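Help!! Second protein's tokens look totally different from the first
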Amino acid sequence: MIRGPSDASEIAGARSALSLRAWMWACVLLVAVTWTPVLAVHVRNMSVADSATGGLIVVFPPTASTRDLLRGIAAADGALVEPVRWVPRAWIVQSGDPGFAGRLRERGAWGVFSPELLSLNRVLSCSGMVKRAP
């Protein structure tokens, strides 16, 4: 069967759309593969010792109710400062008592981190893209 010019242009258009879609997915995959180790190193570096005090970022599991989260922070002798807007079940908390981070972990926190966890400059310093601030 002989195809007309309009049929050939439709096939070429479908191929170029498929090619564009493949390039987009390849770019997304490249970004994910590149930044996942950088973010993993950053999160590990920002984790604090059990003896840490002061302002900290605490992350509770998504299955924890708001009541359990607030009770856990209060039982660890901490005070709420503000929620982290783009991370569910994450709060900035504060306490001057030694061992605050350890008590938060005992109350079910998945992670307790330095407030610099949210610093873009610190993330980029883990990647070597910028120099670490003194």
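Here's the second one for comparison:
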Amino acid sequence: MILKQIRISRHFSQEQLAQMSGLNVRTIQRIESGKKASLESLKCIAAALDVDVTTLNQEKFMIDKKSDNWKHLPWLLKCWFVLNFLQTKPTRKSATRIVVIGHVSGFSFCCLGLFNEAALTGGILMLATAYLYHGLIWHGDQYGIWYDNESTKSS
């Protein structure tokens, strides 16, 4: 269920969603953790989030460039994502992969930097890249603009 991703993309806390839907915070927490929700609860949440009940039952969270989230994204952030991913459909999985590769290679090169200054410089640059992409992931989660395909699920 994609309730958590939708809630986060709308910038709502669990408490705010509970208040808007008329449900208990604990109910929202249970549903987000994967527990089966009653149809009445789903209808209340769907009304509060202005989505269909069928949308809440989806396993993947898919957003395209025509969605409101992408439309309302500031122009500079759109450029930021396109330039950093070299694609117009950024996925969270690709950003996470870059963060992991950047950290592993950065720390490795920093260790080699004990023997060679050039390796230390390369390691620092790789770590900086990893932290840059970590910031991109945070912005992507904040604005809910990730693209998913059949083999990728949002976490």
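Reply: Different proteins will give different token patterns, so don't panic. The CA atoms of residues 89 and 119 lie 33 Å apart.
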